[in-house]
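Hi there, hope your week has been kind to you so far. No rush at all, and the record is pasted right below.
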Amino acid sequence: MRTVDGSGTTLVRAMLDAHSDIRCGEETRVVPRILQLAAQWNRSAKETNRLHEAGLTDQIIGDAVAAFILEVVVKHGEPAPRVCNKDPFTLKYGVYLLKLFPQAKFIFMIRDGRAVVHSLISRKVTVTGFDLTDYRQCLTKWSNSMKTMLKECEELGPDKCLKVKYENLVLHPKSEMEKILKYLGLPWMDDVLHHEQFITSPEVYPCQSKVERSSDQVVKPVNVEALTKWVGAIPDDVVRDMETIAPMLSNLGYSPKDNRRTTAH
């Protein structure tokens, strides 16, 4: 599951974790960093030449990065037939990840950027490059990040990257989860609609995290409260310039001029 922090991946993670065949668990925090490092090597021709001269081919580095990611994702939680990773922003490296893991599937969580930024700022969720004192800057960063990840998702294609809107998941959880499980090739389980009932202890169901600020919400049933929390919180000058600040709002089906509520299209 890949997107910007605050886009609903924690909710999807909790719902998928309630399925007996899946284990997602907390964000690892290290997977995006190793991908960023690998991308830096690939972007620099000078660095690439140095690595090749040292006998480190693209294949060797790719195998090493894949082994590192697999070790982390598999062993940082309980064993399961399927494992998933929900570190944010990793879809920026989606095409590269698919080369490392040809059988992988991606879920691209999409949410109204105004709600995302309000969630980050109000909950004080630290995200590299986001200034939590500045709505304008955060919305610009959100828009740029979503543009990059949307491009990766579309390049991967619908068989490998499923777009899921947070608003649709909250308003229509059953139909959206049916779509997600069908995409993953997994049988339907009603448990995914009642994830909060499975959160009994960290040993049994490790959904709540001491480091993921959004995980305190997964103890609650799916609710629609978050769809309107951002309304009235964004400065007037930012609201006025919204179309320019965050062009990805309209590209993703949200109305930058509607400041009363979030509606997914």
